[in-house]
Amino acid sequence: MLSENAIRQLFERRYVPANCHLLGDSGYPCKPSLLTPYLQPRQGPQLNYNRAHKTTRAVVERGIGQLKRRFHVLHGEVRLRPEKVSKVIIACAILHNICKVRQIAEPLEDGDEDEDNDEDGGEEDIHIPQGNLAQSGLPYRANFTNLHFRDADGAGAADGNGV
């Protein structure tokens, strides 16, 4: 889906600032604009990076879960043209933010099976073979990891392979 996405084109054409990134799970190829977790992180920066990646994705997933609980149209496949779907999603997001500002409680649901609660960190155990095109983001991720997630003592440099 990302390969057809207009957001990808914004990154590729450099309309998005260089310090902004998308986060993906290990099912996506690592790219400079799409950061994925290390499959077998080493102690130090790689492990710190994976922890931050997982924490940040969990915040995003919780937000998506809140939207889906409040607006059931978002639960399954929305059978509209992409232009209309994007308008529906934007309208839901705006209405959700209004509800939050006005402290309108979310609907309660028993056993919300749509929430992705990846407590065990299982995504690090998934290995999806990726071709040469997918490898282009691995050196970028290694540099990003060493720059932003270095240990306090400065140890633990990644080697650029990422796996």
From TrEMBL:
<dbReference type="GO" id="GO:0016787">
    <property type="term" value="F:hydrolase activity"/>
</dbReference>
<feature type="compositionally biased region" description="Acidic residues">
    <location>
        <begin position="107"/>
        <end position="123"/>
    </location>
</feature>
<dbReference type="GO" id="GO:0005634">
    <property type="term" value="C:nucleus"/>
</dbReference>
<feature type="domain" description="DDE Tnp4">
    <location>
        <begin position="11"/>
        <end position="97"/>
    </location>
</feature>
<keyword id="KW-0378">Hydrolase</keyword>
<dbReference type="InterPro" id="IPR027806">
    <property type="entry name" value="HARBI1_dom"/>
</dbReference>
<keyword id="KW-0479">Metal-binding</keyword>
<dbReference type="Pfam" id="PF13359">
    <property type="entry name" value="DDE_Tnp_4"/>
</dbReference>
<dbReference type="GO" id="GO:0004518">
    <property type="term" value="F:nuclease activity"/>
</dbReference>
<dbReference type="GO" id="GO:0046872">
    <property type="term" value="F:metal ion binding"/>
</dbReference>
<keyword id="KW-0539">Nucleus</keyword>
<dbReference type="InterPro" id="IPR045249">
    <property type="entry name" value="HARBI1-like"/>
</dbReference>
<feature type="region of interest" description="Disordered">
    <location>
        <begin position="107"/>
        <end position="134"/>
    </location>
</feature>
<keyword id="KW-0540">Nuclease</keyword>
<comment type="similarity">
    <text>Belongs to the HARBI1 family.</text>
</comment>
<protein>
    <recommendedName>
        <fullName>DDE Tnp4 domain-containing protein</fullName>
    </recommendedName>
</protein>
